[in-house]
Design brief:
Radius of gyration: 35 Å
Shape: rod-shaped
InterPro entries: Nucleotide-bd_a/b_plait_sf, RBD_domain_sf, RRM_dom
Order of helices and strands: HEEHEEHEEEHEHEEHEEEHH
Distance between the termini: 81 Å
Protein name: RRM domain-containing protein
Pfam families: RRM_PARP14_3 (PF23085)
Number of strands: 13
Helix content: 10-25%
Number of helices: 8
Structural class: alpha+beta
Strand order of the largest sheet: 1-3-4-2-7
Strand content: 15-25%
Amino acid sequence: MYGAYASTGYGSAGANYGYYHGGPMTASMPSRPPMRMLPGMDPATGVVWPGGKRPPGPMVKAGNLARDITIPALKQALSKWGVDGIKEVLLADSRFGQVALFLFKEAEQAQLMMMAQGVEVEGRPLMLEFLPAVAAKPEKKAREVSRSTDLIKVSGLPKKMDKNELVTHLRSHGVLGISQVALQPEHVAIIRFNEEKDVPKAISKAHNTVFKEKKLTLEPLMSHWDALFPNDADERGGTFQDGSWWEGYDPWQPSSARGFGSYGPRRSGPY
């Protein structure tokens, strides 16, 4: 690919590749021009990206360009040295003056262009730098995007039940860490856990289980206990403990028929 190097006075292809790795080279490379600070400059590469955004994919940055160099002149000069696979060439400003950005589809093609380190274009030896493609950020799964919670909403509850029965059912399926339980209208219960890590465990163990001939649906509830029950002091404290529930209590009965201002009793006490 680069066997013609010997006729240029730059030595063999191996010599030029050796320069890229810090080895000797027959032609001396020019010193860098003074560094400049430019608005919109990428601090990592020193380039002011055309359009304000770094192009995707691997590329090679070429510096020490001749004044008023054109893209066709660059392409023509490099094609003589077997450089191919160039997708696009852009001229951009940088901290060391004008540079050319050679965009490639494949990183291997961009790395092969580094063999042309020091090739003269319009009397100026190119100073090349390989810029790998920026790794794309992995997409987060929906569960990872969701913020954590210590609440679970249980839907599909039977009409006749009490809190103790629900807790016993959940515990029989290995659900641990229950802190508080609040029965709600529409055959729903809100369960609070001691730790957020208990929520996914509970869902994996008890979702779609059958409780009194009803299939339960468990899902995380993105809220806070105090926000759901701001005036219900008794719903906010204590760890769930086995205890008696009011016999004959029907949580789905309208609150006005029970003398409560809202669904559910005003006290749930230590369970």
